[in-house]
């Protein structure tokens, strides 16, 4: 599945795994903030979000770690890299 298409068609949930402070400094409209270090203790919340999860952070490193972990837990998710890229794709919607 094409991440850009998923974002443009507003499928799934955008999850920003940066710190709360980073998230407050700027984020994708409609995204939710679950910092990378909180993911294991917030699994029930993550399982209840609309799949697929579109994971983003500052550069793609932390969202890549989150994607690996969540995939092992059976959650459909994609590493979308930088939140700025996700924000750009979302702005391209009709």
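-> sequence recovered:
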């Amino acid at each position: 599945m094409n991440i850009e298409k998923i974002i443009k068609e507003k499928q799934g949930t955008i999850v920003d795994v940066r710190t709360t402070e980073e998230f407050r400094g700027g984020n994708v409209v409609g995204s939710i903030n679950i910092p990378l270090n909180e993911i294991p203790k917030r699994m029930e919340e993550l399982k209840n979000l609309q799949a697929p999860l579109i994971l983003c952070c500052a550069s793609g490193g932390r969202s890549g770690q989150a994607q690996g972990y969540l995939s092992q837990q059976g959650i459909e998710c994609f590493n979308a890299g930088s939140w700025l890229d996700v924000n750009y794709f979302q702005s391209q919607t009709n």
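The first helix runs from residue 3 to 8.
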